[in-house]
Amino acid sequence: MGFWRSRAVWIWLLTLVVGVLVIARSTFTTDMSAFLPQSPSKQQQLLVDQITVGSVSRMLLMGLEGGTQEQREAASQALARQMRASDRFSIVANGAAEAFEKDRVFLFENRYLLSPAVKDGHFSVEGLRQSIAQSVDMLGSPAGMLLKELFPRDPTGELLALVDELNSADRPGGGGVWTSRDGQRAILMAQTRAAGSDTDAQEQALGTVRQAFADVQAQDASLQPVKLLLSGAPVFSVDARNTIRSEATRLSVAGFLAVLTLLLLVYRSPWTVGMSLVPVFTAVVMGIASVSLVFGVVHGITVGFGTTLIGEAVDYSIYYFVQSGRVGSSGAAGSAAWAKRFWPTIRLGVLTSVFGFAALVFAGFPGLAQLGLYSITGLCTAALVTRYVLPHLPARSVNLAPARRLGLWLTRRVTDLRRLRPLALLVALAAVGVLVWVSLHGTIWNRALSGLSPVSQEAQDLDESLRRDLGQPDLRYLVVVSAPDRETLLQRTEQVSGSLQQLVDKQSISGFETPTRYLPSAATQNARRATMPEPAELQARLQQALAPLPVRPETLQPFVQDLERARQQPMITPDSLKGTALALTLEAMLVQRENGWSALLPLRAPVDAQGKSQEIDGAAVQRVLDADAASAGAPATEVMFIDITTETRDLYARYFNEALMLSLAGLLAIVVLLGWSLKSGQRLLRVLTPILLAEVVVVAGLVLLGERLTLLHLIGLLLVVAVGSNYTLFFDRYDLEDEGESITMVSLLVANLAAVFGFGVLAFSQVPVLRAIGATVGPGAVIALLFATILTRKPAGRAAVSEGQA
């Protein structure tokens, strides 16, 4: 009945219920944009938008390999038909003639409003004579048969000019369907209707594609040799979520079973083991709930990070159950004695962890802030439940006699290990030397944002290969035009396109894409319409223009009718392109944002004699853009050149620098806390030295193994401080060479093994961020305990710290 009369127990139960309810209503995500800045620059915001909601996030790339060319083409046609029958895709393109009928109709019916050749003088007598003469010459060429039917309606060659301009990019080849350059792969492209951030809908869309391909092969057994390849942002987001989900489950189970086995060996009491896990379970629940309440969404990496709490949160219950046995009392008396003698040390260890992770809560990156909040909440919860709830839970006696014998053996080994102090210092010195040498001849840190991505290199290579086969422009280089409204944006983009053409003429770039190629501004469309003469005037001009040419005026009567129709037809709008493959390209380049519109103009890099892409001279591009801005006089608009590779590197550098500064701030806070608590510079140095040297050795070991460190290794190093501080504080406050402290020594060993098991399993994760933490904390915990044993020694004659002294 004492259990139910405890106020602490009621508070714990109520808090636990609330936490479970919060989790049940929480939103979980695996979107790696959580590890992008919360307050990005304009360039970074563009990158974030494209990752989360842009058309790039909805673009699906497909390749068909194996079998014969005829089999691949048949599979492409059948798969495209199946996908178009689904409502999950806004566009499905594979290069098939029937699929692009709408594109041809759109281009032909709007050729006079789209053609850049339509300007003053184009429909003058001389302009007509020149353009019609060129078409007549082409009729005598090998392509003449294709132009014969088109000539009466388009004698000025507007459609051919448009097609040539569209084909100026590196488009995929093929007859019936798109194929790769080597002819070994059929290529398809689709865009999902669902937003890129809707991972559930993206997963359903991928399931639709796979089922459609399975149906195609089931309907035609001859297509069995053909293999489907899938890539694109939807594939990455779904695979990342599934990987994180499966890894979090698998590693949580593995870590839990490892710690459970350890505790069963120590306690040999399932009941006591179950009680030991109460703080861990509560810590996980409250950690997730706190993140959900503060951030509104919980990242999968944060949930996976909860696995680490198994390794550290269980330490507190280990200290309680093992060390309360050391006191020799039972029930309330034993708990009170443990609280008086050991809780001050444990509490100080918890506070060092809190101070270390508190700095991360203020990070400008939501993912990093989530990890910090989760750690603080979880560790504090585990410690408080151990201190105030476990003593009230029903307890059963534990036979610690074997643990006492182990403890006696360990206390004797402490003296032996301390003889290795010169060797430990030598190892630490060698580790410093390794880090200095590597820093001078290379780099310790992986400064690519991809180091945080769970997407495999193989998947990235496939994506690059499919994009190359599709002739997609290299999205590394972009010119971004921004304006308050769409019409202003289109007009400004047309001006910028003219300036970029200068770079093409100078061969500084090999080309560029622009949305105004498919959607000219209203001003440009009106200007082109104004150049079109009325039918009677056009007839008179044709009479003069055709005089020296072998073409009769009545032959071009369809041209006169079409031009008059163009004078009267509505303006081209984005709705005009609906249902065409061109709409996909336009949507990728024309983006509506909260504060206006942006146009993305991808630049194609120049190539050398061997066909290899060269880097674009960003300074040269910027000079042209600056000159364009000076002459344009459009203060409401903005034009930027962005090198995505450089921007990503700068983004990561900002991320790294901020995390490093925050970690150093956390370390400084720990030093201040310990200095205030220990009230002795000598003791402070004695407590900190083993931890810092352990971190140096761990980092050097990872570097020697070929690991380039990411920011999550930095998080791991903070965890090593959190774990290691407990060890050094115990060695500082208690004489662990004394056989009377044998149980205390056992508690440290068991807690260390629990940390190694809990954290160590993460080293086998396929998710880089989890693997980095495991590879850092697992060995770091062992080395921290060894260094604490070897280097930390309580001065003779100092009594153990009591509650009142802490």
UniProtKB/TrEMBL annotation:
Pfam families in the record:
MMPL
> Where are the membrane-spanning stretches?
248-266, 278-298, 346-365, 371-390, 422-440, 659-678, 685-705, 711-731, 743-764, 770-791
Q: Does the keyword Membrane apply?
A: yes
Give the main location.
Answer: membrane
Spell out the subcellular localization from the entry. Cell membrane
One GO cellular component term: plasma membrane
Query: Which residue range or ranges hold the Membrane transport protein MMPL domain?
Result: 171-394
Recorded hits in InterPro entries, A to Z, give:
MMPL_dom (IPR004869), Mycobact_MmpL (IPR050545)
Key words of the record: Cell membrane, Membrane, Transmembrane, Transmembrane helix
Q: Does the keyword Transferase apply?
A: no
The topology of this chain with respect to the membrane is: Multi-pass membrane protein
User: What PANTHER family does UniProt report for this protein, alphabetically?
Assistant: MEMBRANE PROTEIN MJ1562-RELATED, MEMBRANE PROTEIN YDFJ
Protein name per the record: Predicted exporter
Which organism is this protein's natural source?
Answer: Brachymonas denitrificans DSM 15123
